[in-house]
Amino acid sequence: AQSVTQLGSHVSVSEGALVLLRCNYSSSVPPYLFWYVQYPNQGLQLLLKYTSAATLVKGINGFEAEFKKSETSFHLTKPSAHMSDAAEYFCAVSVKRADYKLSFGAGTTVTVRA
Amino acid sequence: DAGVTQSPTHLIKTRGQHVTLRCSPISGHKSVSWYQQVLGQGPQFIFQYYEKEERGRGNFPDRFSARQFPNYSSELNVNALLLGDSALYLCASSLAGDSGANVLTFGAGSRLTVL
Fold first, then answer.
1. pLDDT tens-digit profile of B36-54?
2. Among A58, A65, B26, B39, which residue carries the largest CB count within 10 Å?
3. Torsion-angle region of residue A102: left (phi > 0), alpha (psi -120 to 50) or beta?
């Protein structure tokens, strides 16, 4: 079965600093990988997705992620943090095209310091 | 255009009771999925429905059931509530079919507290 592991349950960054959120996946077949963001009292919003095309994926709000098969990783980055980036971030994986059963990581909470 | 809407937004039940949660997908979306998010954890897949048929079921007991209606809206039912059922229940809709990329659009959720 597929799974993801998010390293670090909490990340604190200064405004303007690099944001790096780590995600490693486990899958016996080529995966589809996603990053979602959840703001307080809201549902999940898709930031970006990897579907076996380009390994560097650009998403919304200045985020991007790189798929590295050799490292089984899909880390999320943003060059310069903004106060509005404070939220919880989830990495997720599925293994079939048009399969809507996603396996989510436990999440990483991002705090942005002024 | 309206997003995925869920009702109620919050509810409190006692152990042993039954609860029904409702979801209306984005217009044109034919698939609805349900996820349970316990505090401090990532969402866990419960069900997926497409064209009124169950297409997937997660590792949840038979106390959990769902259905999809002709207008593609959906209900999640949980019987004999336990304290551990306290969670945020998320509904997500998608175009479904082989549209690729498995993209889900989530609603804001229904927060269930079981006392």
1. 999 989 999 999 998 889 9
2. A65
3. beta
